[in-house]
Structure formats: C-alpha cells, structure tokens
Design goal:
The complex is a heterodimer of chains A (319) and B (262). Chain A has 319 residues and is an alpha/beta fold. Chain A folds into two domains: 175 residues, HUPs (Rossmann fold, 3-Layer(aba) Sandwich), CATH 3.40.50; 113 residues, Rossmann fold, CATH 3.40.50.1220. Helix content of chain A is 28%, strand content 29%. Chain A starts with a strand and ends with a helix. Chain B is of the alpha/beta class and 262 residues long. In chain B, 27% of the residues lie in helices and 31% in strands. Chain B contains six helices and 16 strands. Chain B has a seven-stranded parallel β-sheet with strand order 9-13-8-1-6-7-14, sandwiched between helices. Chain B has a three-stranded antiparallel β-sheet with strand order 10-11-12. In chain B, a hairpin with a 2-residue loop joins strand 10 and strand 11. In chain B, helix 2 runs antiparallel to helix 5 and helix 3 packs across helix 4. Classes of the chains: A alpha/beta (319), B alpha/beta (262). At the A-B interface, helix 4, strand 5, strand 7, strand 8 and strand 11 of A face strand 2, helix 3, helix 4, strand 9 and strand 11 of B.
Chain lengths: 319, 262
C-alpha cells in the first residue's frame, strides 16, 4: 500500500483534480500513490485520469447526500469516513495530499484535526527522508522558509506542482466505498447577483492584471482589454484594498494562484508576494512607467509607459 | 452583541527583514525591533467590527492581539481605535507553525473568557506563519460554524448579516448562532484612520497580558529556518521601443503571434 494518498473532492472540478494528481506524482517520484475521489456518484473519467497519472489504487468514495457540495466543513465528514475505511496506509508517516488553494488548505487542516494528524498547510516542498516526512513552507511574506519534520502522522498537506504527466498504458485497482455517515449542515446563505460577469481566474489562458499604479478608469480599460483578448481580469492586493477589483480576483500569495499562458501586468511593481501567485510557466508581459520596477526583472516582454496612454493605444490597435 | 476580534500583526514587508533564528529549544528567536503592522486581513477584521459598532452603539468589541516582536507599538496602534478591551495574547508554548496547537491554545482561552461572544472575527491568515489553517481549526475547536472570506457586515434591523462574494454571487449569512468569521480584505473594510486624540491617549496606555496554554503536541518539529531562495524566472525582458503607438502595435502583433485572437 502506498504511503501517499491524493484526496480529491470532485465538486472542486477538473483543475483541482489535475493539481492534486500533479502533487502526488511529484512527491511519489515514480513510486506508488493512491487516489481517493469524493463525490455523490462515481466518475469513470476522473478515475481513469487518476490511473493514467500513476495512481495504483483508486477509491471511488460515494456519498449520495453530498450533491454538489464543495464546503470543506461538510466534506471533512465524508473524507474522514472514507480514509477510515481504507486499509492502513503504508509507511510510518502517511501523507494525504489535497488540491492546492484555500478550500484544500482548509480541508487539510480539518482532516488533520479529525484524524489526529499533522496539519502542514500550503507546502512548497514535501519529501520523505527514511520514515520521516519533511515539509517546507514559506513564512514572513515569502521571505523566509521553514522546514518541518513530521515524525508521526498522518500528515495532511497541499502542494502546488507541475501539471501531471499522463500515461496511456497505466493500470490500477479500483475500489468503491459507500459512505453513509451524517454530514454537517451547510450554512443557509442568501444569494444575490454581484454584477460580476467576467470569467473566473481559474483556468484562464490570459489574465490582464492591474496594480497600485492603476486607478478606477484604468481598471475599466483593463476590463475592456481582458474581454477584447478573450481573457479575464485580476489585480494585486493593493488594487483590491483600493476597491479597484473584487477580492475574488486577487492574485498573489494571499489570493489566487494563476497559471495562464500570458499574464499581462499593468502598473504592478512585481513584489515577491504578488509573483508567488503567478505560475513560473506563465509568460509575464509588463506595462509600467517606472523602468526600475522589479516586474521587468521577471517579465519576458516589457513596455515602459504610463497606462493612461498605453492602454487606449493598445485597445485602438486591437479594434 | 459582543464581538471578539483576534489579531496577529505581521512584519512590514516594506522594510528589510529583521534577524530571525531557530534556538536550541526549536522555537523562534526574533531580534531587534522589527516594524510590525496589522496585516490587510487583520485590518479588515477590525474594521468590520468597528463599522458594526458605529451602526449599533451597544456592540462591544474586545480585541486579543498575539504577542510578538515589538508588540507594544502594535498594541498602541490598535488601542487608538478604542476597542472596549485590548489584551496581549501570550501563547505558551509559542509554536505558530503548528496550526492545531495554536488553535487549541486560543480556543481554550476563548471558551474560558469570551464564551458569551456571539461573533469571533479573525483575519483569514493569522500572522506571518499561518496560511489560513488557524481560523478554520479554531472554529472547529470552538464548535462554531465558520463563515470564511467574509468581506463586510451590516445590521438589518436588529439582525446581523455577513457577506462574501463567490463567482457571480454575493452570499449573505444571517448571524443567528455563535459564529467565527474569517475576514478578507475588501474595499468595504479598509481600516479607517484613528482620531489624533485617541492616538495620543493610546501612547500613555499600558496593556494587560493574558496567557493561553496547551500541552505540547508531539510529532511536528520546526527543524530549520532560512532565508527563502530566489526562485528563478526566465524573464530576460525584451523592452519594446518607439513611441506609444509603435509600442502598442508591437505588443498587439506579439499577442497575435502567441495565438491570442481579439
């Protein structure tokens, strides 16, 4: 039995599935891992993806009452029941990986508490050294790195890794676990339209993002540019603080992690905290009037110009 | 309504980082007098509470601020907003990298001293070592429901509602049971400036300390602390030259070459 388990709530979508499989593939480094798919009904497609990513055991864990519920506070009951039903994991310190991102981090913490394990949170690196698990995490705004030794488990963590490689020839054992435990009640929420109409940051191929250097009129132009280019809109933490863009579009260490093909950064200085939210695979294009801005050190393409003249000119060019 | 606001503070990222090291007891030593400020999430939690008190004068705001390097200055900053009480929270032992340990310590104190507070507000990341685990664990240990990523609160009659945005919707929750809300930054909760007379008054204040203890948990050890390595990016920025029109044309052409089709 593998000592690594990727737990994936299917309500979190394809991106969460791939991200968790990528993390499991990276940590297992060619060794076995298992996948636990949590949903209200089994998905052959997701099971096949897990197998092609290298899972040697796939546990289709089904709770009919889950529906489309994506709340960690509810999922913890179903995942906990599933993990208790799985034969003892191999190794002294089993590692349970959740999809990276705030819901995954919350679920990892809740599971650690429910199953008396270690909550490792958002890790930058995970590796086994003999029977011990070693986790590295960022701290102090990304300026320091802490190294944690886990000597007793299980450990629950999130790790952002490269996209998984898929092998067409893979095989695995598939098990079905019927879950019946009582689920906690979800909060009763009153939903109202917020006026947001742009696509979400998750999965966007192009993100147009603005920072402290852009004002409200500038964000109107950035939104127009994002729509024009078939992309979506993001912003840095200072832009969110200033009310230029809603928090669900915040990119950075405390916001969303994005991995578009092109990240167009306008009026963004390029702090460590902001860049931590942009994939190393993304090509950064920077527009900034300060030629000394740090963003030019990491961009592939740059324009030194004020947004006030550059954005209208670019929109004219694209029309 | 009684509201407990839990704050942590973070090191100001605009200044060089102070010396931080690991001591022989595997805990963290911070030297010097680092500039410590409220994080955007701390500020948001505090402002949500202040706005609720503005709108309903019987609202009581009690604040716990985690002890850390140079706490005294941060306590004064918070005191200038005139919470009904302000205590410096000492965790024994202080192991902020262990979210379960930290949540257990704080939950014990809240149950003992603040059990009647209907609402606990926490920034969605608590301090320099948390990435969002502590709030959810604290809610679990307190046996309260959690409303994560709250952005604002408002009274509707005598009833309190909290709001967050998800996708294309606003989600509103009526606070009709003891609740913990983790608060995120938003234009509606940008922290106000304190009145100068309150700032001056805060300079003369002393602040009581309160301790929260829990037995040391086994199995998770901080073994190393080091400066973060520089993550290499390909970069090698090619700057587009010419006037604005030429630069715009070149960028539009480049985007088309990348397969972006307006």
């Amino acid at each position: 039995m593998s000592r690594i388990l990727a737990v994936i709530p299917q309500a979190w979508g394809a991106q969460a599935l791939e991200a968790a499989l990528g993390a499991a593939q990276q940590v297992s480094a060619g060794q076995d891992f298992a996948a636990v798919l949590i949903s209200c009904e089994p998905s052959a497609h997701d099971a096949e993806l897990a197998i092609r990513a290298g899972a040697r055991q796939v546990y289709q864990s089904v709770h009919g009452a889950l529906g489309e519920c994506d709340e960690p506070q509810v999922l913890v009951a179903a995942v906990g029941e599933a993990l208790r039903a799985i034969p003892r994991l191999g190794g002294e310190v089993p590692l349970v990986l959740l999809p990276p991102g705030p819901p995954g981090e919350e679920l990892a913490a809740l599971l650690a508490d429910a199953l008396d394990g270690q909550a490792l949170g958002r890790c930058l690196a995970l590796r086994f050294e003999g029977e011990r698990l070693v986790a590295e995490r960022a701290a102090w705004g990304g300026r320091m790195r802490v190294c944690l030794h886990v000597d007793s488990g299980p450990a629950f963590a999130c790790l952002r890794a490269a996209r998984p490689q898929f092998n067409a020839q893979a095989e695995a054992d598939i098990f079905t676990i019927e879950l019946h435990g009582q689920l906690p009640r979800t909060l009763t929420l009153d939903q109202r339209q917020s006026g947001q109409h742009l696509p979400p940051l998750e999965g966007a191929r192009l993100v147009v993002s603005g920072g402290r250097g852009v004002n409200e009129q500038g964000f109107v132009l950035l939104e127009e540019l994002a729509v024009n280019l078939g992309g979506t809109l993001g912003g840095s933490l200072p832009a969110v603080d200033a009310g230029m863009v809603p928090v669900l579009r915040q990119v950075g260490v405390s916001g969303k992690f994005v991995s578009p093909q092109i990240y167009l950064a306008v009026g963004i200085s390029g702090t460590l905290q902001h860049l931590a939210g942009v994939s190393l695979d993304s090509c950064i294009v920077a527009i900034n009037q300060d030629p000394e801005a740090d963003i030019f050190k990491v961009a592939s393409l740059g324009i030194v110009a004020p947004w006030e003249t550059m954005l209208p000119a670019l929109l004219d060019e694209l029309r | 309504m009684k509201i407990l606001v839990l704050l942590a503070g973070v090191t100001d990222i605009r200044f060089p980082l102070h010396p931080i090291s690991l001591n022989s007891q595997a805990t963290i030593d911070e030297q010097g007098s680092p500039r410590r400020v409220l994080s955007p999430f701390d500020e948001a939690a505090l402002e949500v509470a202040l706005k609720l008190r503005d709108a309903c004068a019987t609202t009581q705001i009690d604040v716990l601020l985690l002890e850390g390097a140079n706490s005294e200055n941060l306590m004064r900053s918070v005191a200038a907003f005139r919470p009904d009480s302000l205590h410096c929270l000492e965790l024994k032992p202080l192991q902020l990298w262990d979210a379960r340990q930290t949540a257990a310590q704080i939950a014990g104190l809240i149950k003992r001293d603040y059990g009647g507070h209907e609402l606990v507000l926490v920034g969605r990341e608590l301090g320099d070592l948390d990435e969002g685990s502590i709030a959810v664990l604290l809610a679990r240990k307190l046996g309260r429901s959690q409303f994560s990523m709250a952005q604002s609160g408002q009274w509707q009659g005598e009833q309190l509602w909290l709001m967050r945005e998800r996708g294309t919707c606003e989600e509103w929750l009526e606070v009709d049971q003891p609740l913990l809300a983790s608060v995120t930054n938003d234009r509606r909760n940008k922290l106000r400036y304190p009145l100068m007379k309150n700032v001056m008054q805060a300079k003369r204040m002393t602040f009581p300390h309160v301790a929260a203890s829990a037995p040391v948990r086994a199995g998770l050890t901080l073994s190393q602390l080091q400066a973060a390595p520089v993550i290499p990016r390909l970069g090698q920025c090619r700057l587009l030259s010419g006037d604005v029109g030429q630069q715009a044309k070149a960028l539009a052409c480049w985007l088309k070459e990348q397969g972006v089709n307006p």
